[in-house]
Amino acid sequence: MPMARRNSADSYHQRLLRRTRRLEPLRTAVVHPVDALALGGAIEAARAKLIVPVLVGPEPKIRAAARQASVDLASYECIWTEHSHAAAAEAASLAAERKVEAIMKGSLHTDELMSAILAEPGLRTARRMSHVFVINAPAYPRPLLVSDAAINIYPTLEAKADIVRNAIDLAHVLGNATPRVALLSAVETVSPRIISTLDAAVLCKMAERGQITGGTLDGPLAFDNAVSPEAARAKRIRSPVAGRADVFIVPDLEAGNMLAKQLEYLAGAQIAGIVLGARVPIILTSRADKTLSRLASCAIALLLARRALGRKRKR
């Protein structure tokens, strides 16, 4: 039996935006916003009072993008650099020096931006950095957190442990105190021939021994029995996660990226995304992202940053 579709008039992403209304906007380095879409997305987030943009990049290209997007740059702080590499390095330095509270990707490749961030010691934490897609799919009764579909290509078991921890932390910030974490594979049984099933079994044992906390893990689970109670029952899977997972840990970047894009383009899902594990939130947007996706990504960054600030003040 297919799951009932939810009314999208008041989507999860719109509710995220409402949660930020009383929060102070994030001073955010917008890296290399040299086309109208990238620059316009940052300005939309500024108008929504999610960020205070600091535009970092080559002056001629940013001014050309501003003319195309009908943006008056006099209203915004700009830091001119020679090219995209220099813009990424400058943004990482600003974040390490606490001169900005977040970093937002503009018109440059993710690898180029992340290389500059990884090269800045002041942005590293004990955790491996990873990306989480926050997905509002009309046919699923709760948001899906999919990780990692943008940073770690073929993560090791150690990397997957941090990917799980980061995703659980984000679930807590978004209001889910006990997220159910599905460790995905092509099958739901452990097989020595499929590495992802072995990794899933080890991660579950790590959670059992208290090495991963804050959520309930189970796996390996195939996607159908992670989201469908009927599929789980048909395969006689007894699990607190199967059929109602909140967090989906994919075997590798390729699987995660395809899963997220299929939900977006074939199932009408709304997608937002964030990089965790650095000292500041990193907002990764795509040129194809719609306005609500861009704003929701900024809202997630704002919720993360203000939650972290609140923790520091309590100490």
Report on this model:
This protein is an alpha/beta fold and 315 residues long. It folds into two domains: 108 residues, Rossmann fold, CATH 3.40.50; 152 residues, Isopropylmalate Dehydrogenase (3-Layer(aba) Sandwich), CATH 3.40.718. The protein contains eleven helices and eleven strands. The strands form two sheets. A six-stranded mixed β-sheet has the order 8-7-9-6-5-10, with helices on both faces. α2 crosses α11. It is globular. The N terminus is likely disordered.
Features of the shown structure:
315 residues; alpha/beta; Rossmann fold; Isopropylmalate Dehydrogenase; 6-stranded mixed β-sheet; 5-stranded parallel β-sheet; 11 helices; 42% helix; globular; disordered N terminus
Q: How much helical structure, as a percent, in the residues?
A: 40-55%
Low-confidence stretches are 1-9
* Average predicted confidence as pLDDT: 93
CATH architect. name of the largest domain: 3-Layer(aba) Sandwich
In short:
The chain is of the alpha/beta class. The chain folds into 2 domains: 17-124, 3-Layer(aba) Sandwich (Rossmann fold), CATH 3.40.50.10950; 126-277, Isopropylmalate Dehydrogenase. 42% of the residues lie in helices and 17% in strands.
Layout of secondary structure:
Blueprint: H1 12-19, E1 26-31, H2 36-47, E2 51-57, H3 59-69, E3 77-80, H4 84-96, E4 102-105, H5 110-118, E5 130-136, E6 144-147, H6 157-173, E7 180-184, H7 195-208, E8 216-221, H8 223-227, H9 229-234, E9 247-249, H10 253-266, E10 270-276, E11 282-283, H11 291-314
Parallel strand pairs: 1-2, 1-4, 2-3, 4-11, 6-9, 7-8, 7-9
Antiparallel strand pairs: 5-6, 5-10
Helix pairs in contact: 1-11, 2-3, 2-11, 4-5
